[in-house]
Design brief:
This protein is of the alpha/beta class. Helix content is about 40%, strand content about 20%. The strands form two sheets. It has a seven-stranded parallel β-sheet, with helices on both faces. The chain has a six-stranded parallel β-sheet with strand order 10-9-8-11-12-13, with helices on both faces. Helix 8 packs parallel to helix 9 and helix 10 packs across helix 13.
Length: about 375
């Protein structure tokens, strides 16, 4: 008899939490677990389509605002219909109703995953703390998130479990360097910086663009889309670097583009666990990244990449130029990064640890 799990997430457009959920569903042992997915809104976006392609049902509550009570009613009815043994929620706006509605619907086990704490408000922290009694376990995707949950929010340490998000390996064999560059309209001779990110203020793409006038002889490829795109394009124009930037937009198979890059850059102001950085390391790329959130747990400074403070265009340009001027160092960092990604951040490890937690909690609750 399989264990029914209802995964609840805020939305199913592209994002780190959504990609992590998709990978979990791909790796889940379907002989032991029966998954279904629910979201508050955007149940027709790209990640939702990929989940449905796995023959997994996706329910969209069609929430239009935080006070959309009918949407919460639809979600409650869906929970009652699915009757899951486990409700596993991701992101604050799904975690909170998941806790309350899950208990009202009689779900035996409720798990919430915390992906990043840096952008939350004190009110959200209090709500998290006040409702922690409704939760059986909180999964933190990095030690930084785990420690913040315990020390700042005040969650009980015994309720917080560290499970790193995982990536699919290997990633560097999907496409050759020459083919990847051809897809982006790049020549084989030019030096290429790459960033894969949602275009959002937290991701610091504006900092990277401000660094570009001081970066020597390199083209920047920005893979991703988001609310800041028009502002970022305007900024690039004002700084005179537009001709050195390729706006690749959203790419469903970003792995295929990673071989085109010489250096991967992550300029975030805030992070939980940067899976795009792990993917770049797995592809053998040296990384320049800001030392925020869980990033120092991924990037070993001077071993797999270079770490620097956030929101500092001059420091970012200096680090990039240092790597561009030292090809042997780039090669050494890339090799070490590939080994670290395979050893510590595989999707198989993430799935195995999460499944073990499911079984542990089911046994504790005597539901298997």
């Amino acid at each position: 008899m399989s264990i029914t799990i209802l995964y609840l997430i805020t939305e199913l457009d592209v994002g780190g939490a959504q990609v992590a959920l998709l990978r979990m569903l791909k790796g889940l042992d379907r002989s032991r677990f029966s998954p279904a997915v629910a979201c508050l809104y955007n149940g027709d976006r790209s990640i939702a389509r990929e989940i449905r392609a796995l023959n997994i049902q996706v329910f969209d509550a069609r929430m239009r605002s935080k006070r959309d009570v009918p949407a919460l009613g639809r979600l409650y009815n869906e929970i009652r219909r699915v009757r899951p043994t486990i409700l596993h929620a991701h992101l604050f706006h799904a975690n909170l109703p998941g806790r309350i509605l899950g208990r009202l619907a009689g779900v035996p086990i409720i798990i919430c995953t915390e992906h990043s704490m840096a952008l939350e408000s004190e009110l959200r922290y209090r709500l998290n703390r006040w409702t922690i009694g409704l939760v059986d376990r909180v999964i933190a995707v990095s030690a930084n998130v785990r420690d913040f949950c315990i020390s700042h929010i005040g969650l009980p340490p015994e309720k917080v479990t560290l499970i790193y998000n995982g990536i699919e390996l290997p990633v560097s064999l999907h496409m050759s360097r020459q083919t990847a560059r051809a897809r982006l309209g790049l020549s084989s001779e030019e030096t290429v910086l790459g960033v894969v990110s949602r275009l959002d203020p937290a991701k610091g793409i504006d900092v990277l663009i401000r660094a570009m006038p001081c970066v020597e002889n390199a083209t920047l490829v920005i893979v991703g889309d988001g609310v800041e795109r028009a502002l970022l394009e305007k900024l690039a124009g004002e700084l005179g670097v537009s001709r050195r930037i390729v706006w690749a937009g959203y790419q469903p198979e970003v792995y295929n583009l990673l071989p085109a890059f010489d250096v991967f850059v992550q300029p975030s102001r805030f992070e939980g666990l940067p899976t795009t950085v792990i993917e770049a390391m797995a592809a053998g790329l040296p990384v320049v990244a800001t030392a925020v959130g869980g990033t120092p747990e991924v990037v070993e400074d001077g071993v797999t990449g270079l770490l620097l403070p956030p929101a500092d265009p001059a420091a970012l340009a200096k680090a990039i130029n240092h790597l561009l001027g030292d090809p042997p160092l780039r090669l050494a960092l890339g090799r070490a990064g590939r080994e670290r990604a395979a050893r510590q951040f595989s999707v198989e490890q993430m799935v195995r640890q999460t499944e073990a937690l499911y079984i542990e909690l089911c046994r504790e609750k005597s539901v298997i």
